[in-house]
From TrEMBL:
PROSITE patterns: TRP_SYNTHASE_ALPHA (PS00167). This is Tryptophan synthase alpha chain. One of its GO terms (cellular component) is cytosol. Its EC number is 4.2.1.20. It comes from Halarcobacter ebronensis.
Length: 246
């Protein structure tokens, strides 16, 4: 069965809501939660997730909020932290990994940590048995892909196009998919621009999909009550999980 990874930004509008939403998404078919660590300059993210980051920060988000929500979610579902290197570096990467160990968070997705720099911290991730998710992109050649994926853990994040999340572009990825599969048995999941309309097509040839903006846009919809947001996002998660496995 193909997997669904779901991203939400932490602590919008509250830690308790984040916990309730995450667990409802699990019930709806989300296999792995990416809990977003709000940051002021989320360079890989499009306007929807960028806005969510800014709302969280303007509402007074602190790392203790991330830790509080994570401590309640991680014992109940597979989850990762998704964020940018600045907060991890500022707090101390090893301190973050200790917290991950404490709560049962299984690793991190850090889109602005280049592969070569990630090699410098691999030992720290290994020490705590946590995954640092590897990225491959349509711009990568075969040698680059081989290097990136041969020691990958948990899953490989395939960027669907060169750009930012949620912009809905498309590229022919068949050759990059076959190259990744040639060098790694680690599951390959596709992200960027995946929603309930595009998921079935994008899931072809890969082991799962990563969905962020399609969920977060409803998280930001002020016309919905909190309970309606949970229902809406969970319904979309259920629809995507069904479609990618048809």
């Amino acid at each position: 069965m193909k997997k669904l990874v779901g991203y939400i930004t932490s602590s919008i509008p509250s830690n308790d809501f984040t916990v309730d939403l995450a667990l409802s998404m699990k019930e709806a078919g989300v296999d792995i939660l990416e809990l977003g660590v709000p940051f002021s300059d989320p360079v890989a993210d499009g306007p929807v997730i960028e806005k969510a980051n800014h709302i969280a920060l303007n509402s007074g988000f602190k790392l203790k909020d991330l830790f509080e929500a994570s401590s309640k979610i991680a014992p109940q579902m597979d989850m990762l932290w998704m964020g940018y290197m600045n907060p991890f570096f500022h707090y101390g990467l090893e301190n973050f990994l200790k917290k991950a160990n404490e709560f049962g968070v299984n690793g991190m997705i850090i889109p602005d940590l280049p592969f070569e720099e990630a090699l410098l911290v691999n030992d720290t991730f290994e020490k705590y048995n946590k995954a640092n998710i590897s990225f491959v992109a349509p711009t990568h050649g075969e040698e680059r892909i081989k290097k990136v994926v041969e020691n990958s853990k948990k899953f490989i994040y395939m960027v669907a196009y060169a750009g930012i999340t949620g912009s809905g572009q498309s590229e022919d990825l068949s050759s990059i998919i076959s190259t990744v599969k040639k060098y790694s048995n680690t599951p390959l999941y596709i992200g960027f621009g995946v929603d309930e309309k595009s998921c079935k097509e994008k899931a072809k040839g890969v082991d799962g999909v990563i969905v962020g903006s399609a969920f977060v846009k409803h998280l930001l919809d002020e016309s919905l009550s909190n309970s309606e947001k949970i229902k809406k996002i969970s319904a979309i998660a259920k629809e995507i999980k069904e479609k990618i496995n048809e």
